[in-house]
Design goal:
166 residues; five-stranded parallel beta sheet; alpha/beta; 17% strand; Rossmann fold; binds 4'-phosphopantetheine
Length: 166
């Protein structure tokens, strides 16, 4: 039987435990989950694409049906190139919904054979985002319950080096 593949796209700058929770849930539903790291030169990332991929690789190494790829095209083109039929998006709160609904309609207009499926992370991560993590870390707050350990360490190191250069 044909394998059901899903793509889980994002900037992952950096990956959070909320993202990892969603990847893990997706692994229980789909045969293959491809985490698609967006390389968007117009969006200034704190971590390089290689670093972002490395953090996800480390955090998902126990999950046998996950792979991680970088993409720089339209998401629908990438999904089709890897043979995925589903795009997974995380919904944390109602505030995510407007934007995600718009994106899902645009992606459907661009590729009608792809379905977007929404999944909710565990409640404990419902307020966690990469942006909030960076802000807390920049103010020396405790992010240990929100990101994998290597991300926590790398984030404080990166922010310290940015401050040194300032
Ligand atoms: O984690 P993010 O930054 O919210 O992820 C956004 C992402 C990467 C999923 C979105 O920007 C995306 O799909 N980018 C690829 C370009 C594309 O296909 N855009 C959709 C049509 S506007």
């Amino acid at each position: 039987m044909e394998k059901l593949k899903a793509v889980y796209p994002g900037s992952f700058d950096p990956v959070t435990l909320g993202h990892i929770d969603l990847i893990s849930r997706s692994c229980g539903v789909f045969d293959e989950v491809i985490v698609a790291v967006a390389d968007n030169p117009r969006k200034k990332a704190l971590f390089t694409k290689e670093e972002r991929v490395g953090f996800i690789q480390e955090a998902t190494k126990q999950m046998s049906n996950v792979s991680i790829k970088v993409f720089e095209t339209l998401l629908v083109k990438f999904a089709s190139s890897v043979g995925a039929k589903v795009i997974i998006k995380g919904l944390r709160a109602v505030s995510d919904f407007d934007y995600e609904l718009q994106m899902s309609f645009i992606n459907r207009r661009l590729a009608g054979d792809l379905e977007t499926m929404f999944m909710m992370p565990s409640e404990e991560y419902s307020f966690v985002s990469s942006t909030i993590i960076k802000e807390i870390a920049a103010l020396n707050g405790d992010i240990s319950s929100m990101v994998p350990k290597p991300v926590e360490e790398a984030l404080f190191t990166r922010l310290a080096s940015l401050n040194d250069g300032a």
